Every structure is written in structure tokens, then in C-alpha cells.
Amino acid sequence: RLAPLPGAESDWVGQPAFSLLSRDVLVALVERLGEPDAARVIGRRLGHLIASLHLSDDADPDQTAWRRAYRTHWRTIQQVWLGGGLTAWLGRAFIADARVEAVRLGATRVSIELARFPETLPLIGAARSIMHDQSHAVVLDLGHTSIKPAMAAGRACRGVRAPRLRTQ
After folding, report:
1. Could you give the C-alpha distances from 113 to 16, 36, 118, 152, in angstroms and in order?
2. What is the pLDDT of residue 134?
3. Which end of the chain is more exposed for a tag (fewer CB within 10 A), N or C?
4. Which helix (H) or strand (E) holds 31?
5. What does the angle CA 143 – CA 132 – CA 130 come to, to the nearest 5 degrees?
6. Measured between alpha carbons, how far is 25 from 161 in angstroms, rounded to an integer?
7. What's the confidence (pLDDT) of residue 117?
8. Which 3 state secondary structure label does DSSP give 67?
9. pLDDT tops 60 at residue 3
10. What is d(CA 63, CA 60) in angstroms, rounded to the nearest whole number?
11. pLDDT per residue over 81-132, tens digit each?
């Protein structure tokens, strides 16, 4: 949920992130505001979410130990890398709006960056997460926009370089 940070949009405070940042919400915003303004709103909401994760406290006594540990971990994050099909479509202006909003709300110690290949980042991550060394792997991105298959070849899961991906 987005935190009640000083200067935050009151309509967003307390809302679950999914209800403000989902693909369906983006589609509705595009229909209502047009693409550029919808991307700005989504960027600002993402900045508010990152600021909420980075700054808000654990005052809720009903939180589980896991949730408290998760929130403690988030307060140590210094870089957030974004990728995926929607991120690639929203582009750099969306990232800039997220940065501005996060800083405006007080999250000055966390950077928000666009991955080098945002549209294939989920596939690269899947290829690199293979637990055993294989020379080839089929990976899938089962995202909101489409299902994207790829063939990873080489040192996909252990190398420091991005795997070679052949997508369809």
C-alpha cells in the first residue's frame, strides 16, 4: 500500500500498488488521459510506491515477521532497475517521472533506472536463473501484454554477460 508520506497524493495513500499500477489501470488511464499523461501518472505512482517501500515504517502491529523483514530489506535498496514490456513501452519519461516523485516524497538515496534491454529483461532473468549449466534453454515471459518465448544459448545462467536470445 502506498504510504502517507508528506506531500503524497491523498487519493493514492493507502491504496494497494496493484490497484494503481496494473496493466488494466494503465489502459483505463490511456483511454481517459491519452498516452503521455497516463505514462506520467503511472510514473508518479511508481515513484510513490518506491518511496513508500524505502521510507515508511513498520508501525502496523499486525504485520508478520516475514513482512517486517521484507520492509527492512527494502529500506536498504539503493538501486531499482525496471524492465519488461510495459516499461519498454512507457519509456524514459515514465522513469523520469518516477524518479522525480520518489525524490519529492523524500526517497533521495534510491536510484530508479531503466534496464538496457527492458523488453527482454524478463527473458534474460529467466535464462540466468537456470540452476544448472546448460548450453541451451527455452525461456518464457508470461507477462500481461503477451507470452514471449526465447531460446537462450551459451553461458546464460552463469555468465556475467547477457545470454544470446532468439525470440519469435
Report:
1. 23, 19, 10, 25
2. 62
3. C
4. helix 23-33
5. 10
6. 35
7. 82
8. helix
9. yes
10. 6
11. 998 878 888 888 899 999 999 999 999 999 999 888 888 888 887 777 765 6
For 110, half-sphere exposure in the C-beta direction (CA atoms, 13 angstrom radius) is 30
Beta-strand ranges (E) seen in 45-132 are 79-82, 111-114
Q: Strands 111-114 and 79-82: what pairing?
A: parallel
C-alpha cell at 11: 487519493
Report pTM.
Answer: 0.79
Spatial neighbors of 99 by CB under 8 A, at least 6 apart, are: 47, 111, 112
How far apart, in whole angstroms, are the C-alpha atoms of residue 127 and residue 132?
11
- The span from the CA of 39 to the CA of 97, in Å, is 9
Calculate ∠ Cα 40-145-141, nearest 5°: 115
Sign of CA dihedral 29, 117, 107, 63: positive
Rounded distance between C-alpha atoms, residue 1 and residue 60, angstroms:
12
Query: Whose CA is closest to 121, among 69, 81, 76?
Result: 81
150 and 138 Cβ atoms separated by less than 8 Å: yes
Q: Which three cell numbers stand for residue 84?
A: 519488461
